[in-house]
From TrEMBL:
Gene3D superfamilies: Cysteine-tRNA ligase, C-terminal anti-codon recognition domain (1.20.120.1910), HUPs (3.40.50.620). The keyword Ligase applies. It comes from the Bacteria. This is Cysteine--tRNA ligase. Keywords: Aminoacyl-tRNA synthetase, ATP-binding, Cytoplasm, Ligase, Metal-binding, Nucleotide-binding, Protein biosynthesis, Zinc. One of its GO terms (molecular function) is zinc ion binding. PANTHER family: CYSTEINE--TRNA LIGASE, CYTOPLASMIC (PTHR10890:SF3), CYSTEINYL-TRNA SYNTHETASE (PTHR10890). ATP binds at K272. Monomer. NCBIfam families: cysS. A motif ('HIGH' region) lies at residues 32-42. It is an enzyme of class 6 (ligase). One of its GO terms (biological process) is cysteinyl-tRNA aminoacylation.
Length: 493
């Protein structure tokens, strides 16, 4: 077990991460705004939070993890109105898709998932506490705003200088320019055509920022161990959370802040105008595997900006194939009894290097490197006959430790891709799927097994023409056959 050291955005340095009550680590992560399908930048953040919670649990520390679902905000209201449906009907589709995508990427579910619309009373109560201190005030239209001039520490997370705050200058939008230091909306008065709630504050709906403060304190208390999210949320969202929460409670809101850096695509900021905007489903329909996407998005440590490229995605696919092939080789066994001491020592060193790397600010790159060094050494030992049965058992133990965090050894890719194709067909988007992908997945595993068995029999009877024809037919459908001394294996491209 190693102490987890993690960079704290608030303090600007690496600090020990541990639960303040020495029991469970209480963490909050900003969840999705369910107005559209999640893109790979969103999922990079959720994946690194998943890595963190897996590492914490691997250290034997229980986790109480809360994630919100923003199911009412400006974008949702605008999009639902354009679609001519109630916001609950509009958001249900994208919320369902979000959780399907989480599952496809192997992201563990938080212990608590809370919808904004289910916590309206909690938000109203928090705003009332702020109003009682004259920190929240009501504007002429009935909306309520947070008076940031009353919170001297405003800017302490984002390290922005807001000395020239103009008291009473307001901003109504949920998302606004990155340097605006203005009183922000806590509660928005009802507008024609918008869904609203009757409350003691008046008829209206919450602003975006208040929901996270209300949910975090409701489930985790007034002082929580860790808050995570993408770096784009640092200001204004997280800054506003701090101001609201600490003004109401008079206590520090969060001990440790974790922010995941932006993702670039082929060296450019991801945007629809650049033509480089990808959801998980876009990549699945192109024929890329969910496991390779997961492995790639966590390959670069969370505090480093990542450049997503399709070449690197292919490399990630190949890396997973190497890991899975090696894992199966160790499982199959057949090694002579005993233990090679040199390899046993190297296995212990790889285990230690892996553990230390993750405990050191979640250095996923170094953790991966330690495992691949072990794979290379063990394969060489197996090829030369020096790997023994006890070595294989030790190596499998390290692989299990690795997979408890990276979660890529079990092959669920074909089922996930089939689900993506079924979704595309239902949505009338099957034309976006790669034709060879459609052809490949039309072939079931049992169909492939039958052809592989027929090919094996054809080779035994020296019907090499038929054996070659089967190999070529499978290859055309994206199925690769590998003949080895351990037998015949196949895999989908």
């Amino acid at each position: 077990m190693a102490t987890i050291e993690l960079f704290n955005t608030l303090g600007g340095k690496i600090e020990t991460l541990a639960p303040v009550d020495q029991k469970a680590l209480r963490m909050y992560c900003c969840g999705p705004t369910v107005y559209d399908y999640g893109h790979i930048g969103n999922f990079r953040t959720f994946l690194h939070v998943d890595v963190l919670r897996r590492v914490i649990r691997q250290q034997g520390i229980p986790v109480e993890h809360v994630m919100n679902i923003t199911d009412v905000d400006d974008k949702i209201i605008r999009n639902a109105a354009a679609a001519g449906v109630p916001i609950a009907q509009y958001t249900e589709k994208f919320e369902r898709a979000f959780f399907e995508d989480l599952d496809a990427l192997g992201i563990q579910r938080p212990e608590y998932i809370s919808h904004a619309t289910a916590c309206i009373p909690d938000m109203v109560s928090l705003i009332e506490q702020l109003a009682a201190k004259d920190i929240a005030y009501q504007a002429e239209d009935g909306s309520w705003y947070f008076r940031i001039a009353r919170f001297p520490d405003y800017g302490k997370l984002s390290k922005k200088d807001f000395d020239g705050i103009e008291d009473g200058a307001r901003v109504d939008l949920d998302e606004y320019e990155k340097d605006a230091a203005r009183d922000f909306a806590l509660w928005k008065a009802v507008k024609p055509g918008e869904q609203s709630w009757e409350t003691a504050l008046g008829t209206g709906r919450p602003g975006w920022h208040i929901e996270c403060s209300a949910m975090a304190t409701k489930f985790l208390g007034e002082n929580i161990d860790l808050h995570a999210g993408g770096e784009d949320l640092m200001f204004p969202h997280h800054e506003n959370e701090i101001a609201q929460s600490e003004s109401a409670s008079g206590k520090p809101f969060v001990r440790h802040w974790m922010h995941v850096r932006f993702l670039l695509v082929e060296g450019k900021k991801m945007s629809k105008s650049e033509g480089n905007f990808y959801t998980l489903r876009d990549l699945l329909l192109k024929g890329h595997r969910a496991s390779a996407i997961r492995f790639l998005l966590i390959s670069v440590p969370y505090r480093h900006q990542m450049n997503f490229t399709f070449d690197s995605l292919i490399e990630s696919t190949n890396a997973i194939d190497r890991l899975r092939t090696f894992h199966q080789r160790m499982l199959k066994g057949g090694f002579s009894q005993g233990c090679d001491q040199a390899l046993s020592l190297l296995t212990g060193e790889a285990r230690m290097a892996y553990t230390i790397a993750l405990a050191n600010d979640l250095n996923t790159a170094e953790a991966r490197a330690a495992i691949f060094d072990l794979v290379r050494a063990a394969n060489t030992a197996a090829d030369t006959g020096t790997l023994r049965s006890e070595n294989a058992a030790e190596i499998l133990d390290v692989l299990n430790l690795f997979d408890a965090v990276f979660a890529v050894l079990e092959d669920k890719d074909a089922a996930i891709t089939r689900a993506a194709l079924a979704w595309a067909e239902a949505e009338g988007r099957i034309d976006e799927a790669a034709p060879e992908l459609v052809a490949t997945l039309a072939f079931s595993d049992s169909d492939i097994d039958a052809l592989v068995a027929e090919r094996t029999q054809a080779k035994k009877t020296r019907n090499f023409a038929r054996a070659d024809a089967i190999r070529n037919d499978l290859l055309a459908k994206g199925i690769l056959i590998e003949d080895s001394k351990d037998g015949v294996r196949w895999k989908r491209k």
